[in-house]
Amino acid sequence: HNACMQRKLIFLKEWRKFRDLTQDRLAERLETTGATISRWETGNTNWTAESLAAMASALGCEPADLFRNPLQPDYQAWRILRGLRPETQRQALRILEALAESEDRAA
After folding, report:
1. Which residues does residue 72 pair with via DSSP β-bridges, in sequence order?
2. Using N-to-C axis directions, what is the helix angle for 23-30 and 49-59, rounded to 10°?
3. Cys staple from 63: which of 37, 56, 76, 85, with CB 3.0 to 4.6 Å?
4. Residues 6+ apart with CB under 8 A from 7
């Protein structure tokens, strides 16, 4: 058992589709096969920190991003927030908190 190998599922398929790539096109970028991409997407093949970094580079994201579904609203909000200055992040969070309180009162 190699301690560096990971079995945890990542959102490789979602990221690939988000970037409008086929398995074969992503495989070309990673210098591997479409079958390997398929096995990574289904969790049938372990990935290493090195392969995760390569996947992220090929997909134009950070390795940590692969653990989030790029199509979900929480990722979209996180992506926007992380690009803001700290003061603007705090303002955005206050706005979100106010919206959540408004929803709670309306329910």
Report:
1. none
2. 120
3. 56
4. 43, 46
If DSSP states are collapsed to H, E and C, what string results for 68-91?
A: CCCCCHHHHHHHHHHCCCHHHHHH
Per-residue pLDDT at 3 exceeds 60: no
**6 falls in which pLDDT band (50, 70, 90)?**
low
Kindly state the tokens that stand for 98: 């106010």
d(CA 67, CA 9): 8
| 60: Cβ contacts below 8 Å, ≥ 6 apart | 19
Q: What are phi and psi of 11, to 5 degrees?
A: -95, 50
pTM value is 0.73
